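Q: My labmate handed me this sequence with no annotations at all. I'd like to see what the chain might look like in three dimensions before we decide whether it's worth expressing. Could you predict it?
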Amino acid sequence: MANASRREHPESPHHNLTTQRLILRPLRPRHAPELFDAVDSSRRTLRRWLPFVDSTRGVEDISGFIRRTSRSPAHRVWGVWERRDAGSGRRPRIGLYCGTLGLHGVSREQASATMGYWIHSSREGRGYATEAAAAALLWGFGPLGLERLSIQAASGNRASLRVIDKLGFVREGLWREAQRIPGRRLRVDWVAFGMTRGDLRHARARLVELCGETRPWEPARTSERAPGVRFADRSRS
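A: Here is what I predict for the chain of 237 residues:
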């Protein structure tokens, strides 16, 4: 988060998160090439459900997205990397960039936000979205102080619906013909879900099990580095 946002919202940090197999880091401009490569190589599978994919044509499009979201207190967006040496007892280091997860529409007044995520096509089916989202939910209801988180998925997006069910979200309704399928006249329904702080009391144990951390924002410091990637002290991010 930009320094100006930190001054305006000192109570709303943006932490690194670490799970059993993943490292989530707030997106910065230097991550734009990695993020674009991941979108571009997954374009065929992502474009069916994510409208932004067709308009993302180059690194400059990703850079603009990162600038806009990193400067706004209404967004918390992480890049998701595989964690090397996971489970080995060693300090983890960053691996392959494999997706993005964000909390959007973050409202201080309403203490609420909406979650979204996607995973690289080569890493689908491994439970990464569930693991990353579980960590973000614990953080959102923890340091960020949210009282409610919502999420939507297209009615035909079975993979995302399975993730949402595993996380313990409560189905709240149907948004009819909410999204137009790129390149087609067909529109699809979205299913709307929510989780409140009250729901969290029943879901917390499951979320901890899914991500492997009780407090994923306070793991052992990551000190090893991958080429071209800088690591910041978690206590300052």
